[in-house]
Design brief:
Number of domains of chain A: 1
Strand content of chain A: under 5%
Structural class of chain A: mainly alpha
Distance between the termini of chain A: 25 Å
Number of strands of chain A: 0
Oligomer: homotetramer
Shape of chain A: elongated
Amino acid sequence: MRNGTEERETSRIEAFSDNVFAVGITLLVLAIKVPTIPATPEPGFLTKYLVSQWPAYLTYIISFITVLLMWINHHMMFQRVRKPDHALMFLNGLMLLPVTLLPFPTSLLAVFIAHPQARYAAALFSGSYVLIAGLYCLVWTYITRMNKKQGVEEDAVRLHRQTTKIRVVFALYLGTFCWSFIYPLGCIFACFLLAVYLSLPELRNTAE
Amino acid sequence: MRNGTEERETSRIEAFSDNVFAVGITLLVLAIKVPTIPATPEPGFLTKYLVSQWPAYLTYIISFITVLLMWINHHMMFQRVRKPDHALMFLNGLMLLPVTLLPFPTSLLAVFIAHPQARYAAALFSGSYVLIAGLYCLVWTYITRMNKKQGVEEDAVRLHRQTTKIRVVFALYLGTFCWSFIYPLGCIFACFLLAVYLSLPELRNTAE
Amino acid sequence: MRNGTEERETSRIEAFSDNVFAVGITLLVLAIKVPTIPATPEPGFLTKYLVSQWPAYLTYIISFITVLLMWINHHMMFQRVRKPDHALMFLNGLMLLPVTLLPFPTSLLAVFIAHPQARYAAALFSGSYVLIAGLYCLVWTYITRMNKKQGVEEDAVRLHRQTTKIRVVFALYLGTFCWSFIYPLGCIFACFLLAVYLSLPELRNTAE
Amino acid sequence: MRNGTEERETSRIEAFSDNVFAVGITLLVLAIKVPTIPATPEPGFLTKYLVSQWPAYLTYIISFITVLLMWINHHMMFQRVRKPDHALMFLNGLMLLPVTLLPFPTSLLAVFIAHPQARYAAALFSGSYVLIAGLYCLVWTYITRMNKKQGVEEDAVRLHRQTTKIRVVFALYLGTFCWSFIYPLGCIFACFLLAVYLSLPELRNTAE
């Protein structure tokens, strides 16, 4: 069990991270731009515009679900922490960097999805996920070592299963990143499927 | 009663949701644009501009009150939760998606309120509310089932009354959505009246 | 003393309000625009631009200090609350509306400070403060009545002094609002002086 | 030890500050602009654009790490506080002013890094850090005095070491500020090295 001060320490790191997740997830909407009414009247302008914005909706939904899953997993990760130290605060903060960065590649991909150089936008998009998943692995490993040093007992089987899962997710995102250079649209749908696939256990794992 | 860990779990979900509500409600202001001073002096430019922005003020107020009511009701909903699970975290997160999306239809409707295609902007605006109200029903039902499985005792009469209220609100928003295609301005005022009407019990329900 | 549930209720209202204050205070920076480099080289472009932005800095500082003082006072106000009800949640939320709106009049005044119609921008700016101060009075009065009904004992002398202070602040902001139509620049400096003046007791009131 | 009310008071100041740090750190991303596709097709437009944005990435990373370190240190600072007063709330709020301001100089420097007047943008950038570091010293000193008056016992050796460290950081930022007028690019890299250097002890200070 944690004592009062340690509890408060962990809570404050979680609260800061939760805030960053919450603001980041809310800023994603800025990727969906509101048009100005053109000077010359054009019938069906709004419907055409709204339909043409489908890449923005798609990248928005992918990023939203991904940040949401990250938040849930971050939650799970910090339940393991007993006595946080400064290095954990710093590493956790670094992991938040690509999260706060996400509105940029999300918007960029929405604009350049049909551009001849779409693969670079897709690479930046999936690359951000690779970075987040990679830093997530790093923080996870750090906590494992920290807990060993502090003598915190953990369920070895469960820990091993979770560690494997996190590494597999990292490898899958690395795969979408490599794919982005060959077939950008495919990479985006892979990111989407990955987000949906990773949500399934959350939904399956219902109250029993 | 909840124990410490469950209390902390519920608190963290609430805190994340509250953050998203708070950031979402504050980002709505971005729908009200600051003009640039025109190169050629034009007497009364500012007053004309400020008056012409009335749709932005109206949609802003509707969205603000609606998000506020959602937050209050979310509050009420999570007081029922004893032992949150991953699926609840995920469903609750999904419910926040249309909340974070709101600045987009709010701005869009403010711009296109007098456009021949205003009905699509109004449909997107009221459609977001339908989505939120629908997901709210979903999360509410999920909590009801979860509480039954966990053996949490609830006041059946009160629960039934609240469930009915939530479904009626969903039906009313569905009504404004259908109306938006026929008479967009009417739909906006219906959303406004609905927001005001739903605020009344909050105000009536004073300290006794 | 509050019990656990009431404590949690009050905390959640405070947390939501604090979030809105924090996001609102941070969004104020969007009023200070970053220029694009002009196509034709112009010596001293940046310094001229930075100097020309003084109204944006001034309105930013006034709004920042005012929101900060509001947050501190909101803090003081909610220390009085024992058992919050729905009406308080709603009224408190309404009070946050002009707070979230502040980035708009702050930017508007920064742009139109030297415009012939500056008085309307100044009126909107100080008018927002009047609205906040007025709603603050309303929530304060509501808490006073609620506490009476709930039988919460309060120090009558201290309460009376605080109530008077809040009403005087409201009257002072009403004064700056009226003045804005006659002499807009004067109104802005009055808002600035008022913000500084209201900060003084906070600073004087040091640890003893 | 703190009692319940004081604990709650300190927590609420921390929560407000954490929120401002979190929103501020997330708004930094707005400095990285998404381009619009040019009307005339230009091969390699996106890659050229992405490469040309390196100053935005650099200033983003510097500001992100700096705000993160500030947050960690703010954390450390408020662990010393036993009984916060209004003046501390106000001073702490003032310290947050340059933090919320950071997106402006960060964007400005990203745009003007190669401009003949880059030194002014660099001065504003490093000047913001000087202001934050200076106000940090002020709040630190205030807490030291407050704790003395309240009779809070502190480890004199550790306190002296920390005070010295904070003053040295302030002096180092003052140095980068002076340098910005002579060699702006050097100043930026100095800010970067300083951010990295200040992160090292956080990483070294691992669980033992």
